[in-house]
């Protein structure tokens, strides 16, 4: 119940409690259909009636004034309540608008977060697939390198067992054999009597006969000290004095071809052990593609640029281009590869020899590089 109505009820009850001065007298009922006769008012009754009438009018005026006052107060109260309700409604509308904006902002942030999460998930899946493919490729390459290293270790063990720098096995090193013996080695074997007869004929004609071990060797103290310092912590870093000297004196000149850019690529591939040399089939030569013209051809060396019969070709790493090389270039590249293979074996701890024997084996490999860079190569090339 609102406050104006409560005031109105209180005023009405107050008026009901006040005594009424003038009272109405009940009329006497008629007897047997006779007419009613009104008594004539006396002077006293008329004076009392005027007074009662004035009191009633006063009460009526008071009642009217109180009702007007109650109505005015009630209207003012209703206006205040309406104004207060409108103000509260306005505040609620503003709050609803603010909450609606917050909701829209949260929905937008949620959509952006969902999109970013999906994008990040797809990115992670792509990276995982890329890493998996790279890992599988590295695994295949590692298995191939393991097979190759096992074959090289087997060959190195055979070399270490059957050949040493002091007494090399000439069957494993054809370049140490004399030209006459190399010619006979290409064909069928010959017996001892024929060999003795040939040697006697050469001696009777005054031709020089190469002795079996006519080479004298002496250890260079500077080179040996550099090798010993490198052997303490073997590494393939060319900053060491031992490898720096070999790079300047042997590796660099041996791989210095006419095509300088290709020479640098070949040297990097040799250092990283990613160079492949394979023979070229002479019966069915492949069709030379347009992209392979710059790589030479079966009759043009890609390193020297000269017209030579190229029986081998090389590939650098995973590149699809093949470079045809002449026998002389192949001998120079092979000599450098043999040197790097041996020092890798030393670095990995596969060579179980005395330091001096390893030193002379390295000197022999340096000698092969020196001979190859001068243009000498075996006829089997």
Q: Explain this structure to me?
A:
The protein has 381 residues and is mainly alpha-helical. The chain is built from nine helices and three strands, in the order αααααααβββαα. It has a three-stranded antiparallel β-sheet with strand order 1-2-3. A hairpin with a 6-residue loop joins β2 and β3. The longest helix is centred in the N-terminal third of the chain and has 120 residues, at 43-162. Residues 20-37, 175-212 and 283-294 have low confidence and may be disordered.
Which ranges are low-confidence, i.e. pLDDT below 50, for 5 or more consecutive residues? 20-37, 175-212, 283-294
Assembly annotation: single chain
Q: Name the helicity range.
A: 55-70%
Radius of gyration (Å): 61 Å
SSE succession: HHHHHHHEEEHH
What is the distance, rounded to the nearest whole angstrom, between the alpha carbons of the first and last residues? 120 Å
Individual helix count? 9
Largest sheet: 3 strands, antiparallel
Give the overall average pLDDT: 75
Structural class: mainly alpha
Report the count of strand segments. 3
Binned strand content: under 5%
Secondary-structure blueprint:
Layout: H1 3-17, H2 43-162, H3 179-186, H4 192-204, H5 221-232, H6 241-254, H7 260-272, E1 275-279, E2 312-316, E3 323-325, H8 327-347, H9 355-373
Antiparallel strand pairs: 1-2, 2-3
């Amino acid at each position: 119940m609102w406050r104006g109505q409560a005031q109105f009820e209180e005023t009405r009850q107050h008026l009901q409690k006040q005594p009424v001065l003038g009272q109405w007298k009940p009329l006497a009922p008629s007897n047997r259909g006779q007419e009613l006769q009104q008594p004539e008012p006396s002077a006293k009754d008329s004076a009392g009636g005027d007074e009662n009438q004035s009191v009633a009018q006063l009460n009526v005026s008071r009642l009217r004034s109180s009702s007007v006052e109650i109505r005015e107060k009630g209207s003012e109260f209703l206006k205040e309540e309406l104004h207060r309700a409108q103000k509260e409604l306005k505040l609620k509308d503003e709050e609803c608008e603010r909450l609606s904006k917050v909701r829209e902002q949260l929905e937008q942030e949620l959509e952006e977060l969902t999109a970013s999460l999906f994008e990040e998930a797809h990115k992670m899946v792509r990276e995982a697939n890329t890493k998996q493919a790279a890992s599988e490729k590295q695994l295949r390459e590692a298995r191939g390198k393991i097979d190759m290293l096992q074959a090289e270790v087997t060959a190195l063990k055979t070399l270490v067992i059957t050949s040493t720098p002091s007494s090399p096995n000439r069957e494993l090193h054809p370049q140490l054999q004399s030209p006459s013996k190399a010619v006979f080695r290409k064909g069928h074997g010959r017996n001892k009597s024929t060999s003795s007869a040939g040697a006697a004929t050469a001696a009777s004609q005054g031709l020089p006969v190469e002795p079996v071990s006519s080479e004298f060797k002496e250890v260079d103290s500077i080179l040996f000290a550099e090798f010993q310092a490198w052997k303490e912590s073997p590494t393939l870093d060319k900053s060491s004095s031992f490898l720096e000297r070999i790079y300047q004196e042997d590796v660099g000149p041996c791989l210095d071809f006419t095509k300088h850019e290709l020479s640098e690529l070949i040297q990097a591939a040799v250092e990283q052990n990613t160079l492949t040399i394979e023979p070229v089939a002479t019966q069915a030569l492949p069709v030379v593609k347009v992209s392979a013209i710059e790589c030479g051809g079966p009759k043009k060396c890609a390193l020297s640029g000269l017209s030579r019969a190229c029986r081998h070709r090389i590939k650098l790493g995973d590149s699809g281009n093949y470079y045809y090389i002449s026998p002389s270039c192949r001998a120079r590249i092979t000599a450098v590869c043999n040197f790097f293979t041996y020092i890798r074996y030393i670095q990995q701890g596969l060579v179980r020899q005395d330091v001096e024997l390893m030193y002379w084996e390295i000197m022999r490999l340096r000698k092969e590089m020196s001979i190859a860079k001068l243009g000498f190569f075996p006829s089997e090339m």
